[in-house]
Specification:
Layout lengths: L8 E8 L2 E7 L6 E7 L6 E6 L3 E4 L7 E10 L2 E5 L3 E4 L8 H14 L7
Antiparallel strand pairs: 1-2, 2-5, 3-4, 3-6, 6-7, 6-8
Length: 117
């Protein structure tokens, strides 16, 4: 008997040379993942299905803010969608504010300092 998958956790969107890379923590009982995208954060459409806990949204549209969510899928059906994450696609040569802030926080964490947003 197949179980309905648990909710995927820790969904993160990152810049990847003009693309948007999504990664998340796999969901128990999921055999694949349904990925959805939106431009308003409310009305989502199916983007693709992935068998691994990551997806590269190739050249989605520079300067457009996209919202993403992911749900685990099994023989029992589609589980609960993850929390929503968002990202503005930047040209390959530019770094978004989000990416700059993330890299600064990662550097501060490595040197064990307090990072103020």
């Amino acid at each position: 008997m197949a179980l309905l998958p648990y909710q995927p956790q820790n969904l993160v969107a990152e810049q990847d040379y003009g693309n948007i890379l999504l990664t998340w923590t796999g969901a128990l009982a999921a055999t694949s993942y349904q990925i959805q995208r939106s431009t308003d954060g409310v009305n989502f459409t199916d983007l693709t299905i992935s068998t691994v806990p990551q997806y590269l949204d190739s050249l989605p549209g520079i300067g457009i803010k996209y919202y993403y969510r992911v749900a685990g899928v099994s023989g029992a059906g589609t589980g609960t969608y993850s929390s929503v994450t968002s990202m503005v696609a930047a040209p390959p040569s530019e770094m978004s504010l989000y990416e700059l802030r993330l890299r600064c926080k990662q550097m501060a964490d490595r040197v064990d300092s307090n990072f103020v947003v």
